[in-house]
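Bug #77: duplicate submission created two jobs. Keeping one. Sequence:
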Amino acid sequence: MALYKTPGVYIEEIATFPPAVAAVETAIPAFIGYTEKAINEKGESLSKIPTKITSLLEYEALFGRCPKQTISVDVKQTLISDSNTITQTSVSFAGTPPAIPDYLLYYSMQIFFANGGGACYIMSIGDTTSTSYNKDDFINAFSVLEEFDEPTLYVFPDACSHRASNTADDSSVGDIIDAALNSCAKMQDRFTIADVRDALPGATDTNAEVTTNFRGEILSDKDIVKYGAAYFPYLRTSLSFLSDDDSIEVASHTVTSIASDGSNSDAAGSISADTSISDGSVRDSQTEVYNAIKAFIRTNAKVTLPPSAAIAGVYARVDASRGVFKSPANVSLAMVDKPAITITNSINDGLNVDAGTGKSVNAIRAFAGKGTLVWGARTLAGNDNEWRYVSVRRFFNFVEESVKKATAGFVFEPNDANTWTRAKSMVANFLTLQWRAGALAGAKPEDAFFVRVGLNQTMSADDILNGYMIIEIGMAVVRPAEFIVLKFSHKMQES
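Kept job's structure:
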């Protein structure tokens, strides 16, 4: 009680509630890549400055969109010469259809928000007019992000650059993933979502090639790789390429003239090659051609992307609806038509369990009537009994960071039984809530976790003399039912 000197009435508030652990956020990705611009509303540069956003609209305001995609088409028409009537207009791509954008971040943001993503950080390491690709720009970004407390996921689809002028290679992507994993291991509060580069038909499309081109290029230290997970293959999305009339060219336009009786007449050319559809000859005199081209582009020019951004959205969605302890798997992907590679059980076997390297890669598969599902739940330490599952690693991250922040209030408090009891009850109350939510396995709390602190229990007298208060926490985190085995047998008739 305080000492009073002046007579009167005084109020003292008595603290009756114990301190509490506040749960930290679990799914705030930091996206690293190339942007059209990086300027805030004051005109100040945001280049290489991690910036928090909460929507695609906010991204576009600060970082723009992406370059317009050049698309070249051929147009063929059939003309009834007797009546001068066009009866058929068909459009096709001239050459190879566009598939993978030169710059991936803007489209990745679209699919992130479509799959449940929310608040995130954007770190622009260059603009979309640049032709350079420097792995060090990505690697240096992780050091910068370590100064920010909120990010819990690293996502960097632009590391898998497919720009014809400066394409990424497997070794560079491996170095970037290694840097991300090392940063996560250092910080102990974040997790890496990695892409298998070039996971496309005719490229890295078998488990053997995943081993050579991906597993062989990243670290093998299980204490490091347990902080990340990889996903395979690329995704064929329902996102349309960003384009306008000036970026769509008519490579050839032919008109086949036939008589009403079906006999062929001479073919007549209509529009010269390499004419933009913004040209008046297309827009005004050939409205049908213009509309046909626009409809064809809208329907057929779809974007193919590495899966990491969509997976980050799934992490956020599952964390919000179920909890970080629930595996982000057996979950459908929005705005995805199908995986770029059809995954069979034999391919999935090798991806999920790799005896040689121990590095699991999570498959994304299409199932009839179910759509495209995330069909893997393992970290890159896939053969480690402790850290095999993404949900276990991320739940430990969540609890460790939450308890770390809460116990900071005990620094410089008396290192005695009163403080130990308060700290123990605070952590135990928090873990009891997690047990009730279904995160910890056990019929009763004492079966699901333990919290220990005290002299001759977790600390020696010498520890206390040196200022150490040591709290030991054990948790039985729920694990996913990865393999469900149904056993059937014959039963003899008994009546």
